Amino acid sequence: MITLDGASLTIEDVVAIAEGREWVRIAAEAVGRMQRSRDHVEVAMRGTTPVYALNTGVGLLANIRLEDHEIEQMQVNLIRSHCCGVGAPLPATVVRGMMLIRANVLAKGLSGIRAVVAERICGLLNCGITPVVPSRGSVGASGDLAPLAHMALVLIGEGWAEYRGEVLAAATCMERAGIEPLMLLGKEGISLLNGTQAMLSIGCLRLKELEDLFYAAQTTAALSIEALRGTAAAFDARLHAARPHAGQVLSASHLLSLLEGSTIPRTHGEGSRIQDAYCLRCIPQVHGAAWDTLQYARGVFEIELNSATDNPLVFDDAIVSGGNFHGAPLALALDYLAIAVCQLAGISERRTERLMNPSLNEGLPAFLASRPGIESGMMMAQVTAAALVAEMRVLASPASTGSIPTSGNQEDFVSMGMTSGLKLEQAVDLARMVIAIELLAAARAMDLRGDTSTPPLERARSSFRARIPAWQEDCVLSVWMEEAAKFLADCGWKDLGVEQVAMEEAVR
Q1: Could you read off the pLDDT of 242-258 as tens digits, one per residue?
Q2: Which helix (H) or strand (E) holds 314?
């Protein structure tokens, strides 16, 4: 059971709830805070002073004063009118993460809503009712309005939701689960809409995948080093202490732990090969920079998870309208992650090329074919990797620089953070495939050489071969490429080599 108090939600909690492994509830102290802020709202709504979104319209319509009998209807109208999302639905995990984070925002007690609103979101999560939320339509300010509106629509018994494997009318889902639709009071509609929870859910879920993918890339790179007869000399701890970026130090130390004790003969220093190519020698500098980017994004996401992004906010002495719903901090971090994962994939593709190219691969057959000429081996797999990296370069172009004014120019500078998140969604999947192709090539090269590597690398190789068997002749590689990508997503890469939790703490 995860308890929401508005202050202690973690990225790991988001992943657990999104994947349906935990139940959730609102903390008792949070219920008290929400009631106190609700009391302030009730007083304000009975007063004569216009207060944004309590007794006025919203956006450019904020100058329109509502009559008392119009306040509750406006909240429902707000949700319905903001349901303008289009496109394929967001993954259920993203929607569940979005719901959880929104409930936690409300639990801070600064939104002026009744506790039952947050508790009803928790009820949907616990019963497995997941709103169908279109993926397109948010500009990231006033937050993710359209996605959150589609989520809120289900709370009032309208729209569509997934329940026990079926997509049904929300009212049907709630009836079957024994949950009553909400009757919204003043302020509660807008408090469900203003915020960054859709883009933040994507960010949290993909960040966890990227942290795992970092270690997969490290292990795959170490196998490539072995297959290419590279050297671990460039991972010497003294080198990296002289330029102590945390990620660089972590990457080098982890690579050394994977390669320690290797008996594979090296070609380093022989003939004209004094140093390895950058894609081998500079792994810590590139992978490490990507890791540092992940940790920067983690810091941003952890702050946002427990931040009040509603508008207006209800304090003990005032109701204050501001712009905490603006997605700029997340948009920049999400764009940064897309750039970092493009780097991780780009250097992986270069190692794949080196494994294939007979002029660069230290005696391996051309394209890792058993019989080059009559067979093409993995020639086209590298072509696919190159195509995916090219696509990732497009996805790495920032969305956060592309504001388009909306809402009658009242919302005249928006974050486009949801676009940044949707680009990242695609980029992570593409990067995983690029690294999967390198893993296929590295394992194939090791098979052709008949080499035995270090214990941690042999464990990884053995697990990989249990899923993707070695082949002797040309075959349909796309099947194994897809399976290799699934393997990367499933395997506990962080557990290989030394204890990584301790190592990560040591370099911070």
Answers
A1: 999 999 999 999 999 99
A2: strand 313-314
Name the nearest CA neighbour of 199 among 263, 283, 137. 137
Q: Which residues are part of the catalytic machinery?
A: 52
Q: Which burial class, exposed, middle or buried, applies to 245 when counting CB atoms under 10 A from its CB (0-12, 13-18, 19+)?
A: middle
What is 112-167 written as a DSSP string?
---HHHHHHHHHHHHHTEEE--EEE---SSSBSHHHHHHHHHHHTT-SEEEETTEE
Output the DSSP codes for 365-423. PGGG-SSBTTB-TTHHHHHHHHHHHHHHHHHTS-STT----BTTTTB-S---HHHHHHH
Q: What is the pLDDT of residue 282?
A: 98
Would you say domain 2-195 falls under CATH 1.10.275.10? yes
Residue 56: which residues within 8 A CB-CB, separation 6 or more? Answer: 50, 62, 63, 64, 65, 66
The model's pLDDT over 263-299, given as tens digits with 9 standing for 90+, comes to: 988 766 555 567 899 999 999 999 999 999 999 999 9
Q: Which residue has the higher pLDDT, 142 or 5?
A: 5
Domain boundaries 207-318+327-405+423-507, corresponding CATH code = 1.20.200.10
Per-residue pLDDT tens over the stretch 445-469: 999 999 999 999 999 999 999 999 9
Residue 183: other Cβ atoms inside 10 A:
12
Express each pLDDT in 69-97 by its tens digit: 888 898 999 999 999 999 999 999 999 99
Q: Who's near 1: CB < 8 A, 6+ residues apart?
A: 22, 23, 24, 25
**CA 24 vs CA 18, 103, 165, 178: distances in Å:** 11, 10, 21, 17
* 57's tokens: 């319209």
The string of DSSP codes covering 257-269 is HHHTT------TT
Is residue 343 a contact partner of residue 289, using CB atoms and an 8 Å limit? yes
Provide CB contacts within 8 A for 500, sequence distance 6+. 215, 254, 494
Residue 503: both structure tokens together: 């190592």
pLDDT of 495 strictly over 80: no
CA distances from 400 to 197, 297, 309, 421, 423 (A): 17, 15, 19, 10, 11
- How many C-beta atoms lie closer than 10 Å to residue 149's C-beta? 24
Report domain extents, the chain: 2-195, 207-318+327-405+423-507
The reply to whether domains 2-195 and 207-318+327-405+423-507 share a CATH topology is no
- What is the C-alpha separation between 478 and 259, in angstroms, rounded? 30
Taking the CB of residue 397, how many other CB atoms lie within 10 A of it?
13
**For residue 233, is pLDDT > 50?**
yes
CA–CA separation, 6 vs 121, rounded Å?
Answer: 14
Please report, as a single letter, which amino acid is at residue 121: I
Task: Specify the pTM.
Answer: 0.95
H or E element, residue 2: strand 2-4
